[in-house]
């Protein structure tokens, strides 16, 4: 099966009209999936650079799930979802219902991407308890059980079995939770601990496979979504060899330049099934 190409449209530094246009264009050029994210402030500057540690982040930004409902109306083929929604920001039962509703609006294209949360400015400004990283992971695991239970009670049911995507690379907790609940996992091709980016991907996949085996699950049931620099098309074949089944490429506002992403789509289309 050919790898999927996902475009991560960062909903920052742009008018909603430009964000909506980017979603429409992403489908038109052949993306399989489009993601936004679940934050309340920009994570990067307009030029794509990072703020200094401790520097307050400011700029145009829009809420995640309201936006996804709109994308569900203006697109017709691509899967849509957050990369990822923050578990802390919504009651788990409500989140299950919100995603189910987007699934119906989109006629069965919603992905429930979720993570434990990490951006402290979001928490502080909107009145959520930040706690510790371990506490947030524990809350995520409890929430996932409630989400799965609530999905089973909803009327009407989702159009399809909504895939749960879990983001994060923690080997002791996050990947264990992923093995238990997720249909998809998202990580990054980031160098670290003496490993290249591709070696990191292969290693995380191996850890996830081992967690699956420990709980008696087939690792092939979980798709592997890997974020990589959109300009590194030279790494495409290596990424797939490392275990990626989906390549996720980010574009920043306000202009949302898809030039480099078109090369990835051409690469995907050139592969044999």
Radius of gyration: 18 Å
CATH class: Alpha Beta
Instruction: Report low-confidence residues grouped into runs of 5 or more.
Output: none
Helix/sheet category: alpha/beta
In what order do the strands lie side by side in the largest sheet?
3-2-1-9-8-7-6-5-4
Strand content: 5-15%
Helix content: 40-55%
CATH fold-level name: TIM Barrel
Instruction: Please tally the helical runs, counting DSSP H or I stretches of 4 or more residues.
Output: 9
Distance between the termini: 5 Å
CATH-derived architecture: Alpha-Beta Barrel
Major β-sheet annotation? 9 strands, parallel
Name the average pLDDT. Answer: 97
| Count of strand segments | 9
Order of helices and strands: EHEHEEHEHHEHEHEHEH
What would CATH call the homologous superfamily? Answer: Luciferase-like domain
Written account of the structure:
The chain is of the alpha/beta class. It has a single domain (4-270), classed as TIM Barrel (Alpha-Beta Barrel). 41% of the residues lie in helices and 15% in strands. It contains nine helices and nine strands. The protein has helices at residues 16-28, 64-74, 92-105, 120-126, 133-153, 174-181, 197-215, 236-241, 259-270, and strands spanning 4-9, 33-36, 79-82, 85-86, 112-115, 164-167, 184-188, 223-227, 246-251. A nine-stranded parallel β-sheet has the order 3-2-1-9-8-7-6-5-4. Helix 7 (197-215) links the parallel strand 7 (184-188) and strand 8. The longest helix has 21 residues, at 133-153. It is globular. The mean pLDDT is 97.
